[in-house]
Amino acid sequence: MFGRVADRMARARTVVFVTGAGISQESGIPTFRGKDGLWRKHDAMKLATIGAFYEDPELVWEWYEERRRNILAARPNEGHLAIAGLEKSRRVHVLTQNIDGLHQRAGSTSVYELHGSIIRIRCTACGFKDTVTAGFSRLPPLCRCGKVLRPDVVWFGEQLPQDVWRAAIGHASSCDLMVVVGTSLAVSPANLLPAYAKKNGATLVEVNPEETPMSGMMDLSVRSSAAEALPALAAAFSP
Ligand code: NAD
User: Which of 4, 43, 75, 221 stands the most exposed, by the fewest C-beta atoms within 10 Å?
Assistant: First the structure.
């Protein structure tokens, strides 16, 4: 499956995975593109914005509550588990655009959540933050200070948490191998990470059933699903 880059992969000591919604698709969590990109006729890309939230916080919260229930009931798949298993033999960092926590639940210990987490909430006014796994009795939920709470995620058009982003650039710029899995590479600035790795001379591998705007800069594009390709990739690393 890995042909001419197999040797370079086997020699890689530090491996960085850049992951997106596609890696969790086989855990039953919809992506934002194609037929999955609609919720009750609403475009997911438009709902995940600060504008949509202030226009109709109840609607956006209903969407997040449904996603939270689905995510909390989901289980990591063979793709997440293969990445976690690689820590036995390599230094591994995961830079994820996902908000579902499945990498951590699979056992990965170095995970950078570029777009936050759906199980955390924060106040839109007072800075209060918490982790919440139960459902809310009313939507939108209110903070003790009386203002509206929001999911602690990064919406389209918002800035990434700067400490997480700086760490992500550091890991991307110093890895030997970057594996980009299940992301359309359409969302900025996360889609800049492969360029940082390339600049450092890292080998770039993409796992995605479909072509992406950055397929041209990859050393190898594996056109299969994450749950299929990642266990094979992990096996190729075995001593
Ligand atoms: P995206 O929806 O833009 O793209 C998904 C990509 O995954 C596509 O390129 C598709 O071809 C590929 N894909 C689909 N099924 C796959 C599979 N089984 N294996 C491998 N690849 C597969 O996702 P994105 O690039 O992550 O960007 C969308 C934004 O939406 C991100 O900010 C992300 O945080 C958010 N999001 C997160 C989740 C989650 O946490 N699970 C789910 C949906 C959206």
Answer: 4
105 and 221 belong to one structural domain: yes
Question: Which residue minimizes the CA distance to atom 39 of ligand 1?
Answer: 98
Cis bond upstream, residue 30 (ω within 30): no
User: Domain residues for 42?
Assistant: 30-73+116-153
19 lines ligand 1 (CB under 6 A): no
Domain containing 18 — which CATH number? 3.40.50.1220
Q: Phi and psi at residue 159, in whole multiples of 5°?
A: -80, 145
Query: How many domains are contained in the chain?
Result: 2
Q: Strand 177-181 and strand 14-19: pairing?
A: parallel
Q: Which of 26, 29, 32 maximizes ligand 1 atoms within 8 Å of its Cβ, making it the mutation to test the pocket? A: 32
Per-residue pLDDT of the chain (239 residues; tens, 9 = 90+): 777 788 888 899 999 999 999 999 999 999 988 777 788 888 999 999 999 999 999 999 999 999 999 999 999 999 999 999 999 999 999 999 999 999 999 999 999 999 999 999 999 999 999 999 999 999 999 999 999 999 999 999 899 999 999 999 999 999 999 999 999 999 999 999 999 999 999 999 999 999 999 999 999 999 999 999 999 999 887 76
Q: Would the CB of 99 count as within 6 Å of ligand 1?
A: yes
Q: Cα(207)–Cα(210) distance, rounded to whole angstroms?
A: 9
